Amino acid sequence: MENLLTTSELTVVEIQQILQDAQNFANGAEWKPNKQSFVANLFFEPSTRTKCSFEVAERKLGLEVIPFETTSSSVVKGETLYDTVRTLESIGVNAVVVRHKEDNYFNELVGKVNIPVINAGDGCGNHPTQSLLDLLTIKQEFNKFAGLKISIIGDIRHSRVARSNADALTRLGAEVVFSGPKEWFDENVLNDANYEDIDTAIETSDVVMLLRIQHERHGENDVEMTKEDYHKQYGLTVDREKRMKKSSIIMHPAPVNRDVEIADELVECERSRIFKQMQNGVYIRMSVLKRSLTTIEGGNLHVNDYKKWPIAY
Amino acid sequence: MENLLTTSELTVVEIQQILQDAQNFANGAEWKPNKQSFVANLFFEPSTRTKCSFEVAERKLGLEVIPFETTSSSVVKGETLYDTVRTLESIGVNAVVVRHKEDNYFNELVGKVNIPVINAGDGCGNHPTQSLLDLLTIKQEFNKFAGLKISIIGDIRHSRVARSNADALTRLGAEVVFSGPKEWFDENVLNDANYEDIDTAIETSDVVMLLRIQHERHGENDVEMTKEDYHKQYGLTVDREKRMKKSSIIMHPAPVNRDVEIADELVECERSRIFKQMQNGVYIRMSVLKRSLTTIEGGNLHVNDYKKWPIAY
Amino acid sequence: MENLLTTSELTVVEIQQILQDAQNFANGAEWKPNKQSFVANLFFEPSTRTKCSFEVAERKLGLEVIPFETTSSSVVKGETLYDTVRTLESIGVNAVVVRHKEDNYFNELVGKVNIPVINAGDGCGNHPTQSLLDLLTIKQEFNKFAGLKISIIGDIRHSRVARSNADALTRLGAEVVFSGPKEWFDENVLNDANYEDIDTAIETSDVVMLLRIQHERHGENDVEMTKEDYHKQYGLTVDREKRMKKSSIIMHPAPVNRDVEIADELVECERSRIFKQMQNGVYIRMSVLKRSLTTIEGGNLHVNDYKKWPIAY
């Protein structure tokens, strides 16, 4: 029973194993649990791509997906997340995928429930399947992490993936720099001395990873600027794209604010991997679900199954 | 990859082919795509029968239906319809069924996304699967269109099906007349000289097709009358039904406002095909989905498959 | 076509048959209808456990579950429950599961629609699958009903299960007593002379069945007390649990108000069957769905199928 809560808890070997398994799925590998298995997606915050991506991944693995509508559930009667998950466990659900607005909501569950929890985003905290799909997209492009320079640009403070991506990429051997409005940064980030001005970052990186401005997470006292100003100062403009390194790529977790983080006409340009990232999301989620459900079943069979697939680092 | 956006874009031959395929499904024919296929139903407006009808049709074809809740999706973060559909395409969805409150919303998609769009209703514009199920119901009854007289009665201006039904029925050889409150009509309709008073229309038609009063689409300045007045002046009363032609039938797209468009006790009377229309809706949607998914797959097989089924005009 | 509306309409033999079939499912028996079958869950009130439990049961029987969102359906356009269910019937749905806030909502349907209705809770009225899962949990524990003493404690007036459980248990041979705040009781209950004070009830019963305080059903004029007061006066405190009979058990329909009806640390104690009840809910619903769908199909096969399974009373 393997949870997936944060990328920082994963070793480099575990990350590579998840990526390899995802790549196998991308190449057409199939895997299904050996008995009818149930999963519930508990999304307490709006989401299209993550929820639908998990749904497609679940169906491709032949799982039964139990609809769980947070707005019409007993949560509105005040039921705790723990009681909700224990209920689902009791009725036969084999794994839960949870998105929740509270940071580290999963501390209420871990070690107490007997089914794996897959974190699909907690507050401003973590979003491990997003991080992993970013890593897969980079690996597919460069077949390595060591020696790459990756710039993460934008709304770092409210991003679930900025810090976990930086952590994982660094452990995998890449160099990570941050850019964007300094007012939006933690002191931690700034003190790290890995802040770069936007033009240097874009011109020298192999991967330009733009972050969505999380308007919905900004408080009233936040420094605000117009969309046009943001785009001009910190966005990937048509002009800046021309100065990117040869064979460097553009990434964005989406949904994109067109003409804010990135110029409208660049969203689907040749360098853009934005829709490729979404496609990879399905394979990463298949890999992560397989990992969680494999160990449930006692798993000798499926551990062997991992071994049968060549693992390349 | 065959979209279905409006009936007016369909040739008479295409209409007949869709009807024939639907009738084959009604007769027990089966068809499934040759690999796991995904469809998403994007309903940005409330609907029971259309959405559930598509769901049943999709399951009968063995499709995987990806739940898409418009109220909890990224659309609430301001994502465009184009970006939403491209996202679904990226994660492996093979076709989208869309209902949207804007007329011709599909212009934003057509030629830009690479998966078929099936229109399940746009604003006050089109509702092609509703039109097609109406046609199937008429064909089952009379086995022809030529020579039939069909009266379409009621809220023409706000109806998605009135004009497209009139267009298709005329092309198929039927005579179409309109009736109802003149204030609710376009000048186009009135100038067509095919307006008839309610009693003549009902007494001389083979098909009396009543339209739902779309209270929810009426603006504040609309001419309003009481339900009782509407029923008396323009509704199918018990008395008017007695004066209908022998073997003529009653149709209504539902949901019915009982005792407004039609007397409560007539909704399930012998002449009524209202619930038959709903039943036919499933077969039409199976036919339309098959048509969209067939061409995706390159389709020699399935084109042959069409040929194997006798097509009767 | 066997409806399930209330437990009081079921004979003792029918109850025992449903319990036996459920126990067979608990023991690993499998049953699937012999053709693709569709079911729709119409929940007009919030629910996690009942809705998800039905969903799991339905998937285990291989049924196709048609999503029906009450908030986005034509019900918001004013469609009646009858027209909604007739619509679902017309498009091929084979059974409906309904939860509705009105007592006896099903009177609008019974004898008029041609598909079975399974009541998942009506107003303050009935909740037969909850009653049946309670019975199954008791039967698993004691393998009999005769001679058992069961106390039902708490918010009797707003409980869907209190009266129907009392009725069924009495018919099955058990003794039932009530306890809790007298202000919350019907005169019927009090006059029955089966009211006991909380401490006597808890110390002398084989089954202590606590009811959820239905805050959401209490009106403004209800007698209110603090949670702490309720717990102290009428709750299962840690201290009261110590005075329970040897081998007696604790039940609660959930969701639990922790530290109100029952002390937090007792929810998952050794005597507690609260999560067991949820687990049994799936088997009961499988049994009830099988019963409804069996008779639809004409059913000689499935009637035999019942006979093939030994029925123990």
Indicate the topology.
Three copies of one chain form a homotrimer.
Chain A (H helix, E strand, L loop, with lengths): L11 H15 L11 E6 L5 H12 L3 E3 L14 H10 L4 E6 L16 E6 L5 H15 L6 E5 L8 H10 L3 E5 L7 H5 L6 H7 L2 E4 L16 H8 L3 H5 L6 E3 L22 H23 L3 H9 L5
Parallel strand pairs in A: 1-2, 1-3, 3-4, 5-6, 5-7, 7-8
Rg of chain A over CA atoms, rounded to whole Å, is 20 Å
Oligomer: homotrimer
Principal-axis shape of chain A: globular
Mean pLDDT of chain A: 89
User: Biggest interface between protein chains, with counts per chain?
Assistant: B-C, 27 and 26 residues
CATH superfamily of the largest domain in chain A: Aspartate/ornithine carbamoyltransferase
Number of domains of chain A: 2
| Helix count, DSSP H or I runs of 4 or more residues of chain A | 11
Strand line-up in the sheet with most strands of chain A:
2-1-3-4
CATH architecture of the largest domain in chain A: 3-Layer(aba) Sandwich
Q: How many beta-strand segments of chain A?
A: 8
Give helix % range of chain A: 25-40%
Pfam families (chains A, B, C): OTCace, OTCace_N
EC number (chains A, B, C): 2.1.3.2
Pathway (chains A, B, C): Pyrimidine metabolism; UMP biosynthesis via de novo pathway; (S)-dihydroorotate from bicarbonate: step 2/3
Subunit structure (chains A, B, C): Heterododecamer (2C3:3R2) of six catalytic PyrB chains organized as two trimers (C3), and six regulatory PyrI chains organized as three dimers (R2).
What does this structure look like?
- Chains A, B, C: This is Aspartate carbamoyltransferase.
- The structure is a homotrimer of 313-residue chains.
- By secondary structure, chain A is an alpha/beta fold.
- Chain A has 2 domains: 146 residues, Aspartate/ornithine carbamoyltransferase (Rossmann fold), CATH 3.40.50; 149 residues, Rossmann fold, CATH 3.40.50.1370.
- Chain A is 38% helix and 12% strand.
- In chain A, strands 2-1-3-4 form a 4-stranded parallel β-sheet, with helices on both faces.
- In chain A, helix 4 crosses helix 5.
- The longest helix of chain A has 23 residues.
- Chain A starts with 11 loop residues before the first helix and ends in a 5-residue tail after the last helix.
- The relative contact order of chain A is 0.17.
- Chains B and C meet through helix 2 and helix 10 of B and helix 3 of C.
